[in-house]
Each structure stands twice: as C-alpha cells, then as structure tokens.
Amino acid sequence: MGSLQEGLALVRAGRGGMLLCDPTADYYGSHAVTFVPVAGLPESSLALVWHRNHETARTRGFARALADVTEATG
What we know:
Layout: H1 4-12, H2 22-28, H3 57-73
C-alpha cells in the first residue's frame, strides 16, 4: 500500500483493513467503509517528521508554529 487512499480503496474492495486515528476516520468516512472503535490499545501520538536532507526554512517555521500551538494548548 502506497497511500491512505490506496489503503481505503483496498478496504472498500474487501481486500484489507486499517487502523486509523479518529480524526482521519472522521475525515475519510463514507458509506462504503465502516469505522469501528478499537478498545484496549495503548494511547498513541502523532509527530511531525521530515527527511533531514530536505529541511527548509518553511519546515522549521511550521515545526515552531506547531510547537507553539501544542505548548499553548497543553
């Protein structure tokens, strides 16, 4: 699977299953796919990552802005 869209297409075709975070499931929700909450898994987190050889001023600025928002919201 090369992308989220490809994975969802496989699920719609009955050829796979995926674990997604709630916001992603909400965004990509459709009548063709049923999203079922999974209980008993440890908490997860998201992180911003980029290839070290492709870092730009824009990437650093976005990382700083995200850190500022995260710090402000606790």
